[in-house]
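Q: I'm writing up a methods section and want to include an example of the input and output format. Could you take the sequence below and give the corresponding predicted structure tokens, formatted cleanly so I can copy it straight into the document?
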Amino acid sequence: MSETSKLPIGVFDSGVGGLTVVRALMERLPFENIIYFGDTARVPYGVKSVATIEHFTGQITDHLLQRGVKMLIIACNTMAAVASHAVKQRAGDVPVLDVIDAGARAAVQGSAGAIGVIGTPTTVNSNAYARRIHELNPAVRVYSQACPLFVPLVEEGWLDHPVTRMTAQEYLRPVLAEQVDSLVLGCTHYPLIKPLVQDVVGPDVRLVDSAITVAEQAAETLNQLGLANPGETLADYQFTVTDIPLRFQTIGERFLGRSLGTLTKLDW
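A: Here is the clean output for your methods example:
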């Protein structure tokens, strides 16, 4: 087993949401070391221009490559939608995965023809999921719905609250009217309300959790490239942010399902 296999996986996001991807990786790949980078000082990315998002994403990519990662995972749908090409250009031989590609692949594999996508307005307006799904299967019909209230509701901790349920019913009504058989959770905040969403859409609609699907894709890629960590020692998890807001620890631990441990603050 090469020394490269012991290097960490670099996971990054504009803020805290990507910790749902880290959680999925911890469960699927318990021996893998992980560095998480959240650009909490400059969140949200969704309101920024494409050029700015590309610039910020490039900075984070360079930082993680300097720290010696064996794989990069773009855990932010906004970054993946507009800047994944910039990450791949910088990464060279380091494999790059992203939540949009992973979610689109999983959706197409399990759909009979109609797929719903829910996400933030920026992700939905970018049309990135629909484009990727149609590249994989041009015959599939895609119905996208922006759900701007879900992120603040999740960060408030209202995971099974009547207000969240009513909001989900309103957002999902037009999507369900199209008789979709699969629904992509196109935002890293959404896995926390997955049980509620499943309850609203009913048992006949399959939910595609891009956090779980990208963790599965990471496992397959590491095995194919011979980069899987043999697990001779306990996995090491490092968390770096560009600002530590008062609520970050609380929200972060809710997303991760465990203690965050030590947070490192990086000043650009």
